[in-house]
Amino acid sequence: MMNKTADILVIDDEQVIIDAVIKICKLDNYTVDTALNTKTGLDKIAKNYYPIIISDIMMPDGNGFDILEEVNKQKKDSVVIMTTGFSTVENAVNSLYKNAVDFIPKPFTVDELLSSVYRAFNYQKIKAKQIHLSLQKRSDEILYVTCPAKYLRLGYSTWMNQEREGTVLIGVCDLFVKTIDSVQQIELLNVDDEIAQGINCASFVCSNDRNHKILAPVSGRIVEVNESVKTEANIIEKDPYFEGWIYRVIPANFDYEIKFLIPCSSDRI
Amino acid sequence: MFKKIGLKIIFAVALTSLVIIGVFAYFSVQSQSKGLIAEVERHANQLSETVVASTRVDMMLNQRDRIQQIINSIGTQKHIRDVRVLNKVGEIIYSSDSSNINKMVDKNAESCFACHAADKPLEHLSMTERTRIFKVNPDSNRILAIITPIYNEKSCWQAECHAHDSDQKVLGVLDVSISLAEVDKAIVSSELKILFFALIAVIGVGLVIAFFIRRWVSNPVKDLLSATQQVSQGNLNYTIKEMGEDEIGKLGLSFNNMTKKLAEARMQLFQSDKMASLGRLAAGVAHEINNPLTGVLTYSSFLLKRTKDNPEFQEDLKVIVRETLRSREIVKSLLDFARQSVPKKSSANINEIIDKALSVIDSQLSVNKVRVVKQTEHNLPALVVDANQIQQVIINLVVNASDAIGKDGGVITILTKQISLAPLGITQIKKAACPKRHNLIDNDFKIDGIPAIKVKVVSDGKEGIIHLDPVYGKHRNIFNTGFKISKDAKFVCPDCNNSVVDQEKVCPICGSPVLVFEISGQGRYEVCSSENSNWEKWDYIDSLGLKEFIEIRITDTGSGISKEDLSKIFEPFFSTKGQKGTGLGLAVIWGIIDNHNGSITVDSEPGKGTTFTIRLPLSQ
User: Fold this and answer.
1) Do B468 and B610 reside in the same domain of the chain?
2) Helix (H) or strand (E) holding B587
3) Residue A109 and residue B344: Cβ atoms within 8 Å?
């Protein structure tokens, strides 16, 4: 393994954003390396090791998705956070589908960036550990519970499961729960509210005062909210895939949106 | 020669009447002249009989001078040319022309020929046989001559002069010739009269026809012509004034209808284009603004964290953060506007959406004294739509209607109903297969954004690909092979080279081979292989009958929209509300309805009101 030169590599064609990210990351004592275009970014990724890479999507000399693909291929132990000013839902869900750890639409606040980086680090640690364990051929140790085979997930954070009545259940994956601290409070939407794929649908306030938002895996109208999760937040940690569901939703555009979801059955190979 | 349809018709009619009148005139003149000649004949016959009778006694007494005298005196009458008596050997014994007396007339001469044509002379002749018409020389008048045989009688051979034997039958012939100059004159004058009449009649008919053709054909055709010119120059608002109920009138109506439909289609196309470019603009602007906004937001929220113990700074920084977050929301909504491509659809009842929309603007309507009349059809099937977007559409249209009505009050009628429209031009072929079940849908070649059906053509040793329109009924097939497809060309699947031609069928329009494709679960789709025919058939879809839509009509009694404005109201940034409006309302509405695969049209009459009609498909 290459030696770590910095915790984070920021790739963005705007100097002001790079400066801002450096400043913010200093608050949590992360070291930051930078690249002003995709070419420099790819060079640095090839030469050095960064646990976290934050990449803009639209840059003059290339596309952030190229960086994402390169990291997926070459650097199994790095994770990528995608960000863009062209913050469409398509960009968000596409990023997550292509294995980005998170998508932060610009403009973002200090807290939004910090909570995302925080989760990314925890995720990266779990991933690194997993690689380490598999190298030692020790599969008996369970780091997190993968979601049931017939479920679909958006990135690693939220899952959905189609019910017989045509409704779908939505919840958070165990891996996501493992990347945040113990949940103090969950802020949920109400019945009859509309949610949209790739858009915030709930936020988790954790013990260390961080606020983590999750993105809805599908669009639709909420028909039921799991009230017990509201009152007893730790159900999500105990049983994230069954008792810990969050919303029951009538999907609006399921046939279209399903192509951005990853089948959980692919996790078991 | 005849470049005008009116002249052609006039020519045809004039020619017809000329022929009819000519034939009529010919027979009329013919019968008239026949009658005149017959009259002259009768007169001549009478005269001859009279001469024979009046000379009879003198003949008996053999008083030749008296006979000559009588003949002379008759011969002096104006139109009598000659009176002469010939004896049986052809010698002229009496004549009104004394120079002819004692001359011999040949048996073949006209006056003798009638009887002496055969070797044995005839004794009895009918009147027509006794009559002859001739000319002395070509340029003289016609002459009618009649011969009257003088028969032998008992008193003749018993007379004292003993001039005749008893065994003779005919003693001689009286030959009276009468000039036909008068008659000919009358015939010529009547011919002239009829010719004159015919001329007048033909000219008259021509003028009358010309008048009506100008009125019923030329002028309307001229109007149509100038209308087509206007349309070809791009003026689709041009309408032809009412032209009556005949075929040309109907053509005019159908022309107006066509231009209206064309204008609508152009508008939809134009609008799609404009919305797309506006979307790109908005997306570009959003991207550009979001980067500097990130700077502002991160630095200000960073400072906010760093200055926790400085309340004075905190207040100011919070304002900056709050306002930057607000800007973020504005940019986001701009992006949302640009990105209407994926509506969040769910099942909803249109009447409920309308009720919800009306409850939002209820107070505003009652302030303006606007009464809303709902003519909603009950038990309408549920639509799969983005209820919020449709509600926004209804609210915008009703508020617009209320604005058009103004302060004096009025009525807004909202009507919903289910309608059926033909599936042609709507249904898309999503899967087409060759006999070996290879997929023929070409995702790399799209017609109007929809993947087309590809077919390989092998013609005279050349190979190429043709693409067929995947929308049933639109016929936008593309034959870009670069070579001419011959009559015995083969149409095959590009994957397995199996023929896709239906062996038992040819195109009923042009006789070309018919291509046939399996549409999974939806029967067979047949289409003519020729560029020149639009024939296609999809029994499965045809048998489904009509496609169902929900129609929503919002009608107001407001000020209406002028014709010039009507063509522009769906354009972004077009507004008649001056400072009050942004001009995005109807453009957004159009975009929403378009994204629901629906259509929106507007009809308006200034001073009377406006009707917006929205059609949303019941199933995708």
Assistant:
1) no
2) helix B585-595
3) no
Query: Of B509, B538, B567, which one is at a domain's C-terminal end?
Result: B538
| Long-range contacts (CB closer than 8 Å, 24 or more residues apart) made by B237-243 | B237/B263, B237/B563, B237/B564, B237/B567
Residue with tokens 């059809």: B377
Q: How confident is the model at residue B417 (pLDDT cuts 50, 70, 90)?
A: very high
In sign, the C-alpha dihedral spanning A128, A130, A136, A141 is positive
Between B302, B335, B346, which is nearest A88 by CB?
B335
Q: Look at residue B585 and tell me whether its pLDDT is greater than 50.
A: yes
Q: What is the pLDDT of residues B304-317, one digit of tens each?
A: 888 888 888 888 89
The beta strand positions in B19-169, using DSSP E, are 80-87, 92-95, 131-135, 142-151
- B523 token code pair: 């029967």
Among A88, A193, A197, A250, most B C-beta atoms within 10 A, so best to mutate, is A88
| H or E, element range at B565 | helix B563-566
Residue B313 distance to chain A (closest CA, Å):
17
Q: ipTM of this model?
A: 0.82
Q: Does B614 touch chain A (CB under 8 A)?
A: no
Minimum CA–CA partner of B296 in chain A: A107
DSSP code at position B546 = P
Higher per-residue pLDDT: B302 or B482: B302
Instruction: Residue A196: list chain B partners with CB under 8 A.
Output: 344
B45-104 pLDDT per residue, tens: 888 888 888 888 888 887 888 888 888 888 888 888 888 888 877 788 888 887 888 888
Angle between helices B247-306 and B311-338 (to 10 degrees): 160
Same domain, B112 and B171: yes
**Which chain A residue is nearest to residue B289, measuring alpha carbons?**
A85
B305 inside 8 A of chain A by CB: yes
pLDDT of B524: 85
**What pLDDT is recorded for position B572?**
62
Structural contact between residues B386 and B532, judged by C-beta atoms closer than 8 angstroms: no
Contact B456, B497 (CB under 8 A): yes
Compute the nearest-CA separation of B239 from chain A (Å): 43
Which among B291, B301, B342 has the least Cβ separation from residue A106? B291
- Give residue B263's pLDDT: 82
- Coil, strand or helix at B471: strand
- State which CATH number among 3.30.565.10, 3.30.70.2860, 1.10.150.240, 2.40.50.100 fits the domain covering A152-268: 2.40.50.100
Q: The domain A8-135 belongs to what CATH superfamily?
A: Response regulator (3.40.50.2300)
Q: Do B346 and A252 touch (CB under 8 A)?
A: yes
Give the residue on A whose Cα is nearest the Cα of B288.
Answer: A85
Q: Do A85 and B291 touch (CB under 8 A)?
A: yes
- pLDDT confidence band for A122 (50 / 70 / 90): very high
Give the minimum alpha-carbon distance from B326 to chain A in angstroms, rounded to a whole number: 11
CB-based contact, B335 to chain A, within 8 Å: yes
Distance, in Å, from the CA atom of A197 to the CA atom of B164, rounded to the nearest integer, reads: 145
* Residue whose pair of structure tokens reads 């009547």 in the numeric block: B190
Q: Per mean pLDDT, which range of A95-99, B330-334, B343-347, B581-585 is the poorest? A: B581-585
CB nearest to B287's CB, from A23, A85, A256: A85
pLDDT in tens, B233-269: 888 888 888 878 888 888 888 888 888 888 877 777 7
Query: Is the pLDDT reported for residue B515 higher than 50?
Result: yes
Give residue-wise pLDDT tens across range A36-55: 999 999 999 988 889 999 99
Q: What would the pLDDT profile of A219-236 be if each residue is shown by its tens digit?
A: 888 889 999 888 888 888
Number of folded domains that form chain B = 4
Give the CA-trace dihedral at B182, B188, B193, B198, to 10 degrees: 160
Q: Which residues of A touch B337 (CB under 8 A)?
A: none
